[in-house]
Records
---
Amino acid sequence: MTAIKCIDLCKNFQQGDVVIKALNHVSLDIEEGSFICLSGPSGSGKTTLLNAIGGLDKLDSGEVYFNGRRVDQLGKGPMADLRLHYIGFVFQAYNLIPVLTAQENVEFVMQVQGVSVKERRRKSSAILEEVGLKGMENRRPSQLSGGQQQRVAVARAIVSQPKLVLADEPTANLDSETAAQLMDLLRELNQHHNVTFLIATHDERVMRYAQRLIRMQDGKIIADELQEAD
């Protein structure tokens, strides 16, 4: 089943007198349960494509469908509701709330969703244990290493079991060992929860985990190939 369908996406940015074609007629189908990496150098369009799919960037033209529903023309309210219930985000900068504990950060989305305190606590405790942070629930981001913060961000992204997780350079600030542990975790979550993952990266270590590798350059898809994941 097709989870995401992108048709002829175009997005330009103005830099002084120069027009940057961040997305240049990009079309793409993403199957439910896939584990896909977008690769390419900085400026190739990876992040813009993630943002377009997640409704964070408005397109100049093109169409985005999520489970058969066109979403690129949704208003702010309906798009925010879609993200809240169906899409998880993992950012390079973690984007954790500094004054909240690890557990409170993980519970934040569920709190906005209106999940009861008891259920939030049960789910957040279970997912923090699953990502290897049992015993660290009450630590704030400043008391966690970079790898631990990224695990909190992953836990927050998947705790409410979204259909899709969009991850932008999730290993950029991690050493090799921590990056490998994180990627093992993402693959495990993909396989056990059937969550679709779309990961933007220029890290060769990350690309080896992908079932499908999509290479971008100058706002275009230049290669799209299936591969045997590590």
---
Amino acid sequence: MSVSPTSDFENLLASGGIEYIAGVDEAGRGPAAGPVTAAAVILPLDAIIENVRDSKLLTERKRESVAASVKEKALDYSIAHIPNATIDSVNILNATRLAVRTAVETLKIKPQVVLIDGKFLNIKDLTCISVVKGDSTVFSIAAASIIAKTARDELMYSYAKEFPEYSFERNKGYLTAKHLEAIRRHGFSPIHRRSFKVML
């Protein structure tokens, strides 16, 4: 049984005088192709948006609908894509941290507290709280997970048109059997992560 995220964490912070709280999450750590993407979202404390939950629990159509609602209601949001070349250069963990930091730092509104899914390094000059499984329990983090996932999927659709032989519109860069066969047949595309171990 899945747990729906709540605004309890945000309301607790708000009771202490905190007004601007950014939820942050990432998408695309595991694929063998494409960027890792992070989103930061600042929502009004009284925001009511239906179906906000871990993006993996929503259908693609539902995610897109909820993402549109989150963007409409948000006081501010930001998206950061870190490309495969950077992932290969600095490793996926550091690239993910860079995506998170870039998403937060490009917000127009400076958050007073940042709630981040999982475990990440602190962001300079900001109060950061890491929440394990935050995309399942914390409303603003779940909202960010939906923005990150839909933004990355949209980018992978554009790559699918550029490199149709890899079916990125279906696998989103993850190593399915058909994706692996395409790599064997055509080699790596310019957006594949060469640092990932791919058994050919």
---
Amino acid sequence: MDKVSIIIPVWNEEKNIAKSLQTLQSLRLLGHEVIVVDAGSSDNTPVIAHPFVDRLIIIKKKERATQQNIGAKQAKNNILLFLHADTLLPENAITLIQQAIHKKYVWGRFNVCFTHSAWIFRIIATLMNWRSCLTGIATGDQGIFVQRDVFLQLGGFAKIPLMEDIELSQRLKSLTRPSCLKASVLTSSRRWEQQGVIKTILLMWGLRLAYFMGVSPQRLSQYYKTFCR
């Protein structure tokens, strides 16, 4: 079975990165690799991450698309898995990915669930998973995986400050629909808790609607930064 390169873009994640990377160490022993691309963190993220990764790349540009593209270009394995720093994989994640690729899927993603157990977060996760299956569009929170040669042939993530995961999904979907794995990654609910659940829902829906209506990612990124201040 093909090995997997796990690419994690980070910036100031010293509180989360050790726990996230520790869960991946058994995979490294099996020949899978972990690549962390740090966007010039001002905290101790690179120092904490270094012992737990096969490759630590530090760049100056804080842009997730660029970070992930750089990680993909330096990856050695045939399958790429893009994972957020605050997201944990299910126990059998790699086997499920390998099986999906063996079934001739070019790409795919996991279901998602949140660290907070409140009912509202279960509903949000369910709706996210349903929407993704219906539309064939995946978000970075869901752990997108893709064959490396296909990713590179498509030119990787578009160099845009927001919606890079949506944009890539659209291009990948033109090749084939994704493998929608039912196993769930566990992602942090911190953004929702900090900004407010309802406000964050409205923001996410509004940004995606605006994007599909043609508003530029650059303009949407400014809206997002203003909201998160």
